[in-house]
Specification:
The complex is a heterodimer. In chain A, 78% of the residues lie in helices and 0% in strands. Chain A is mainly α. In chain A, α1 runs parallel beside α3 (34-54) and α2 crosses α3 (34-54). Chain A is elongated. Chain B is mainly alpha-helical. Chain B has helices at 10-21, 26-37, 40-56, 67-83, 103-107, 122-130, 134-145, 150-157, 161-185. In chain B, α4 (67-83) runs parallel beside α8 (150-157) and α8 (150-157) packs across α9. Classes of the chains: A mainly alpha, B mainly alpha. The A-B interface holds A 11-12, 15, 17, 38-39, 41-43, 45-47, 49-51, 53-60, 63-64, 66-67, 70-72 and B 15, 18, 23, 26-27, 29-31, 34, 40, 44, 47-48, 51-52, 55, 104, 107-108, 112-114, 117-118, 120-122, 125-126, 129, 141, 143-145, 147, 149-150, 165, 168-169, 172, 175-176.
Chain lengths: 74, 194
């Protein structure tokens, strides 16, 4: 696999959306190619960061109470 | 002698399964609603409406399948049909006016691991997400925040998987660039010369 193909499939690889064969090819490329591996690390870190920041917020307690009241008359 | 436990009524069983399979996703529904509507009052209403619709249609949901995807589809349809026209979502960026570039290329000498991201707080990240055009925003939120698969996202949005992939690529690139610009403005990282 060439760098260009690796880059093309990188997000699908990180999202675990590749077929096992292609996933293995990307994995092998990343093991032998430092620039691509660095980019993969950067994107992995970025995706974890976005998820952590955006998941800090949940449903407000007042909304939860309102919904339970509407549903089950509590 | 202990009295025998009364057999659960159909109502109890419905409530129990709805709590176990649907209400556990309340936080996810709220997060998605908040990003779609752009404000908390409409997000509250949209989530409440989604849950009530889902409870009424609970017989149509096949238990043990993908409740989160099923609920998000109801939520997203309600948003499109009843909210999108009237909610005042904060202004979004003009995607055609933004030159796409890979942030990694800019930072690989100074901060190849992207540690500067860590200095950006929740509110700033959410604000940047809200600035994405709607089709990119909903795709990024479903994937990167809620962890839905490409196939699930395609079903929720009613688009081909290839569209999910391309929106995700562009949406991530856009969001990264917004966050990078914010980090540069605040001195978290130096803009690369040239």
């Amino acid at each position: 696999m060439k760098c260009r193909d690796c880059l093309e499939h990188l997000y699908e690889f990180l999202d675990r959306e590749l077929t096992p064969t292609l996933e293995q090819e990307v994995r092998e490329h990343l093991e032998g190619c430092e620039p691509c591996a660095d980019l993969a690390d950067f994107e992995t870190f970025y995706l974890k960061f976005v998820q952590a920041r955006c998941r800090a917020q949940g449903a407000p307690p007042a909304l939860r109470r309102r919904i339970l009241h509407e549903l089950f008359d509590e | 002698m202990a009295a025998p436990t009364p057999a659960p009524t159909p109502v109890d069983a419905k409530r129990e399964s709805f709590e176990r399979e649907a209400l556990v996703h309340l936080d996810a529904l709220y997060r998605v609603a908040r990003r779609l509507t752009g404000n908390s009052a409409d997000a509250d209403d949209l989530v409440q409406e989604t849950i009530l619709k889902a409870y009424r249609a609970w017989d149509q949901y096949e238990q043990g399948t993908n409740a989160k995807g099923w609920l998000l589809t109801i939520l997203r349809n309600a948003f499109i049909n009843e909210y999108r026209r009237r909610v005042r979502h904060p202004e979004t960026v003009d995607i055609d006016a933004i030159e796409p570039f890979a942030v990694f290329d800019q930072v690989q000498d100074d901060d190849p691991q992207g540690k500067f991201f860590d200095r950006i707080v929740d509110d700033e990240v959410l604000r940047a997400v809200d600035q994405l055009p709607e089709s990119f925003r909903e795709t990024v939120v479903l994937s990167d925040v809620e962890g839905m698969s490409y196939q699930d996202i395609a079903k929720i949005l009613g688009v081909p998987v290839g569209t999910v992939k391309s929106r995700l690529f562009r949406g991530r690139q856009l969001l990264q660039k917004q966050l990078y610009d914010y980090a540069v403005t605040n001195g978290y990282i130096r803009r690369k010369d040239g």
